[in-house]
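Can you give me the bound-state structure? Components:
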Amino acid sequence: MTALKRAVSALLLLALSLAAHAQLTIEITGAGANRIPISIADFSGEAGVSRAVAMVIRADLERSGLFRLVEAGAPMAENAAVNFGDWKSRGADALVVGSVAPAANGRFEVRFRLYDTQKQASLGGLVYVMTAQQARTTGHRIADFVYEKLLGEPGIFSTRIAYVVKSVGRFELQIADADGMNPQTALASREPIISPAWSPDGGRLAYVSFESKKPVIYVHSLASGSRHVAANFKGSNSAPAWSPDGRKLAVVLTKDGGSQLYSVNADGSGVVRLASSSGIDTEPFFSPDGQFIYFTSDRGGSPQIYRVPAESGSAQRITFEGSYNVTPRLTPDGKSMAYVTRNGGRFQLALMDLATRQTQVLTDSDKDESPSFAPNGRMILYASEIGGKGVLAAVSSDGRVKQKLSVQAGDVREPAWGPFSKN
Amino acid sequence: MRNKLIIVLAAALIAGCGTTVDPEQAGAPVEDRGAKRIDGTEVKPVTAGDPMGAALAAVKQGVLAKRSVFFDYDSYVIKDEFKPLVEAHAKFLVANPHVKMLIQGNADERGSREYNLALGQKRAEALKKMLTLLGAREEQVEAVSLGEEKPRCSEASEACWSQNRRDDMLYTGEF
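Here's the bound-state model for the whole set.
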């Protein structure tokens, strides 16, 4: 294949992926206070592939709300001499340069280097060998590298998200890249699908499907498409939450009357009661260390958040302010908890520091629900509503960075942010 | 699931009547009713002379054709106006012990989906309790919740929400 043909096919792939229907589009509606000015030069070599890679890096960093892009001009290879004074005067504190060269079997070799223009130093670089189809994946990996070097925490650009799209008479559980691209349908049904939860290894989703006229919990392996029933007892089966080791699910069953918490092995065996109350106990969520299960309960008269030791013990109340606090979701470091609170009839996303019990309302909308943390704890993805239409939104845990994610084709809801990818 | 069962049964037949079936394969699907219905292609034959068929005709007429009980906001109490309806259905269940009922509880859309699922469950269980107190057998009635997922009305108004805070009663053959 000639260089030109390869470049054309790369561009074609890019165009195809942009045109994919039911695509989530992400709008940035708020940005961080101190964004790092960075320049991502086009990589030298294969122009089409290079542009595809550089575009993904730029879009990822800009969407994070933590970077400000500075125009780069001509392509620059990773081994080119860098005039740091020139880049500083352009206002770029960091610079990414690189190259794309043809490799064996129609593949490409992508090299890049990240510079700190203030310190006039290289912060490192990597080499990837990829196919033209992997241009986006490579761009995400490079963006993750840049993000981690400059911010000191892992990037989430290579992760995936799950969500449910509702169109007329149809529900689809979809999986997309964190930037909304490459959406794939894991399950299509005429009946509702709710509460998707990623296994810690990112290979499986537990969810609740109403396809048999009642809520039943399934565990679904994404790569093979095979799935099994994890809980289908008399009554309702819902709210699956994975234990951090991926072996068990905390679930809500009504087999003994009332919505109560149980633990079940991921294969559906070994059902054990976790807590007892005369009211509603639901929405379990394991603390990242596996020690506690946080949950929503109306045992005190109004729905509030409690926790119990995972190995049984007495419940401890966590929220006290207001008459409706639900859906606890802990940060990956276990230090904070996102939840939904009702303020004068409006349902909003709040964050509590679990050590000080200080809370902060993060959103200013009416119908926020189903929060889910990015695996680095920086952003919270949640469901909201704009003009009667279901959309997803994301907000940073400091409340500054805001994004809106929507699909043309229908309502989108029930988001779940997947774990870090293993490779 | 079904294929697997057929294979197990076939294997047992081929090997002769004295063969024991692998307990792991035979024991698993006890609570696995949903999995059989995934493709929705099962057809349950009903013949005209079948008492179930006659029962099904009865629940499509008169007071038994009414299947919904509505609730106040944040309430799980069956209101007096629905008691005659519940009594009629209880009487029917007592007279037809082989007929089963599925109660689907529902909630309005405000708030968390999973919490609303639990609220719908509370409504379904309140109705089940009343039916069993009136003589229906425990195993005859299953109370489940659809939460806020199957609204009858989809506008954001009290008139609409009040239609969504309800229990629906379904009989064998209808679910």
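A couple of observations. Confidence is low (pLDDT under 50) at residues 14-20 of chain A. The radius of gyration of chain A is 23 Å.
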